[in-house]
C-alpha cells in the first residue's frame, strides 16, 4: 500500500496507494514504515519524496479502523522515524493532506503543495484530536494562536494560506512531485536539525494564560458539551508548556479519553451517515448509481419571502442562472434588495465579485417558460400551491421539473394538478435556506427516479446534505418535531417553565431550547398551521379551550399566547420577553409565570416539580419514538437518514449522533422502559406509546444501529 521507486538517481519516491483518499490504514502504515526504512538504509538514496496516488496526498487515519482493535505499526513512531532520519524527506501534497495526512507531512522536513491542495487537522470534527504529533508540531511551526484556531475548528486551508502560515515551503501550479523532487535535490547535504519540528520551541507568546483562557472559553461557548475541542486546547497548551516528549504523553492521554468516549463514536457515525444518505434508492430499484440526474443550468424560484430569497442565493452561489418571481412589485423590490445584499456581503467576505449577473427578477410566471427547473416557495397553503402548479404546468416547457418547497403538505396532491407528476418532487429547504445545510427531497409516489436524482444532485451542488424522504405529513423532520414540541408544552402545563425546559435541552446540547426557537421563528407560524388543520376554529370555546382535540391530548397554551399578540421576537414578547420588537436577547418574563399558574388553576392541573431528566427524556425519547415509527412506515431509508435530518436541519448536537443513534447509545431497553413509564403516566399522549419497531429491536437483543433495517417489518418503502 506504499510503492517504492528510485528516480533521478539519488531520490527515492514513496507513493501512498489506498484509494480513494490514501487513508492511513494499517497496510498503508506498514507500507510507509517499510519503504522509509528501505530508503534510509539504501546508500544510493540521498533524499526521499513522499506523495499519494491519484492526485490525493492523504486523507488521514482510516476512520473505519477506529472501531476495530489496533493492528500494524502505529503512526507516531512511523512519523518520528521519518523526522529523525538522516536524509531529507519532502512531502509532495496534492489534493488533500488532512488529519494524520498533514501530521505525516509535518514529520517530513519540507513540504511542497499544489496550488489547489487543501490541508487541515479535522480530527476535532470526529471527536478526536490530532494525536500523531499534530498538537505538538503545528504550534512549534505556526505559533500557538494559529495552531489553536486550526486544531479546535478543524478548518481546511488552501495551499496559499498554508504558505502564508509557514505550513508549506512552496506552492506550485505544475506537477507537485516534480517540484518536490527538485526541492529534494536542492536540500541534499543541508543540516536537518532546524527542519525537525519536534526539536523546536514554540514561538514565544505574551500573556499565555490569557490566550488559553480565551480559547477555552470560546470552544466551550461554540460547541456546548463537546469534549474534543476542550481536549484540543489542553493538548496545545502542553506544547506551549512542556518539552516535546512530555507533550506527546499528554496528547496520547487526552486522545485515550476521547477515543473511548461516546462522543467520538457519535461523530464518526455522523461522518459515515452523511455519506450514506447520498446513496439513496427507491423501491423500483432506481438508485443513486443507476439514475442520471439532469444537468440544471437555469432555475426559477416563485415567492421571495424568507425561504425564496435563501433558495435564490443558494442556487446562484452554485452557478445556476435564476429567474426570481414575485406577484407584487413591492415584495419583488424587497426580495431583490435582500438577495442582492446577501450575495454582495458574501462576495465581499470572500474577496470575489458577487454573481449578480446570474439573477433576473420578474412579476409573471411567463418568465419561467424556458427554465430547466422551478422551485415554488409561496405560502404554506394547499389551494394556493395547487393554483401555482396548475399555472406552471401551462406556462413551462413540457420537460421542466417542478419542485415544491412545502414543509409538510402532500406532494402528490400538488403533483396531481400538473400534466407531469413524474417530474414533481418536494425540495424542503430549512430557514435560512442559504445557511442551513439540510435539504429533504420528498419523493412522491409518482416522482420519477430522474426527478429524485436531479433534486438530490442539485442539493449537493448547493452544498446541502440531501436526504430522500417519503411523502407523509411533515415528511421526516417536521413530523418528528411535532412529538418533541407537544411534549415541551405538556411539561409547561404540568409545572415546568419555558426557561427550565430550554435550559435542560441546551444542557443536553441543543444550540437553542425549543421555546427560544419558537420565539425566533415566530409563534404565529404554527398558529396558522393549526388553524388550517382544523385544530383551532369556531367550535373551540374561546374562554375555556379544550385540552383534547382530534382524539388526543392538546395544549392550547401556544394559541392563548398568540391571541395575546405574543408572537415571539418579532413582537418583542413570546415565551420570553425582549427589549423591543425584533430584539434578540431572551429574558424570563414574570408575566408568563403568572399566565401559566392561572392556566393550571383554571384547568385544575396540579403543578409539580419536574426534573431535568424528565424534560430531556420526554422530549428526546418522544422524538426518537416517532423516528422508529417513520422507519416502520417506510418514510426514511434508515436511521442514518433520520439522524442527518436532525443534525443538519434541527440543531441536534452532532456529538450525540442524532436521535436514533442517541437511542441506541442510551440503550434501546432503557428507552423502551422510560417510554412505557411515561405512557402509563400519560395514556392520552399517543406519541409516548413505544413503537412496534422499538419493541421488536429490543426483543431481538438490541442489534447495532447498522442492522436495524433488517427488523423493519414493512417492505413498503415509501421512497
Ligand atoms: C492517531 C490518530 C491520528 C490521526 C487521526 C485522523 O487522521 S482522523 C481522520 C482525519 N481525516 C479526515 O477527517 C478526513 C475525512 N474525509 C473527508 O473529509 C472527505 O472524505 C475528503 C477527504 C475531503 C474527500 O471528500 P469527497 O467529498 O471528495 O469524498 P467523500 O467524502 O465522499 O469520501 C470518499 C470516500 O472516502 C471515504 N473516506 C474519506 N476519508 C476517509 C478516511 N479518513 N478514512 C476512511 N474512509 C475515508 C469516505 O467514507 C467515502 O467512502 P464511500 O464508501 O465512497 O462513501
Give me a quick take on this structure.
The protein has 719 residues and is of the alpha/beta class.
Bound compounds, please? Answer: ligand LFKQWZQV
The CATH superfamily of the largest domain is known as: 2-enoyl-CoA Hydratase, Chain A, domain 1
Low-confidence stretches: none
Report the CATH architecture of the largest domain: Alpha-Beta Complex
Give the structural class: alpha/beta
Helix content: 40-55%
Largest sheet: 8 strands, mixed
Oligomerization: single chain
Average pLDDT, rounded to a whole number, is 96
Please report which band the strand proportion falls in: under 5%, 5-15%, 15-25%, 25-35%, 35-45% or over 45%. 5-15%
Number of strands: 19
At CATH level 3, the topology of the largest domain is 2-enoyl-CoA Hydratase, Chain A, domain 1
- Return the CATH class of the largest domain: Alpha Beta
Descriptive account of the structure:
This protein has 27 helices and 19 strands. Strands 12-11-10-13-14-15-16-17 form an 8-stranded mixed beta sheet, sandwiched between helices. The chain is globular, with a radius of gyration of 28 Å. The two termini are 40 Å apart. The chain is α/β, with parallel strands linked by helices. It folds into 4 domains: 2-259, Alpha-Beta Complex (2-enoyl-CoA Hydratase, Chain A, domain 1), CATH 3.90.226; 291-475, 3-Layer(aba) Sandwich (Rossmann fold), CATH 3.40.50.720; 496-503 and 515-602, N-(1-d-carboxylethyl)-l-norvaline Dehydrogenase, domain 2, CATH 1.10.1040.10; 612-717, Orthogonal Bundle (N-(1-d-carboxylethyl)-l-norvaline Dehydrogenase, domain 2). The longest helix is centred in the middle third of the chain and has 22 residues, at 329-350. Helix 1 runs parallel beside helix 2 and helix 4 crosses helix 5. Bound molecules: ligand LFKQWZQV. Ligand LFKQWZQV binds at residues 20-21, 23, 59-64, 75, 96, 98-100, 122-123, 126, 128, 131-132, 275. Residues 299-471 form the 3-hydroxyacyl-CoA dehydrogenase NAD binding domain. It is found in: Peroxisome.
